[in-house]
Amino acid sequence: MKFRSIFPAALVPFTEEGKIDFGVWEGYIDFLISKGVHGLFLLGTNGEGSLSFASSMTSSKVLKGIIGTIGPKVSFFTSFMV
To answer: Could you read off the pLDDT of 30-71 as tens digits, one per residue?
Structure first.
């Protein structure tokens, strides 16, 4: 597989309570897409993988929620298995 695109490591915005702020996340993703990215590398590149993801959310649920905000807009890579 050969990639000729821009795939930045996407930051994940958290609230003060330690939950992912999906509203901010969606705006951030839309901004990246508007600047020409073709895909994203999610979770694990900026320390998110070491977080406990406060509340009852597991990394799998977190990733599914993030993917839900991306939809079919761009491709993605992750270090987590769903």
So the answer is: 898 899 898 888 776 665 555 544 444 556 666 777 777 777
| pLDDT range class, residue 82, cuts 50, 70, 90 | very low
Residue ranges of the domains in the chain?
Answer: 1-82
Q: Three-state secondary structure along the chain?
A: CCCCCCCCECCCCECCCCCECHHHHHHHHHHHHHCCCCEEEECCCCCHHHCCCCCCCCHHHHHHHHHHHHCCCCEEEECCCC
Please name the residue that has the structure tokens 């795939």: 7
Per the listing, tokens 């993030």 go with: 66
CATH class of 1-82: alpha beta
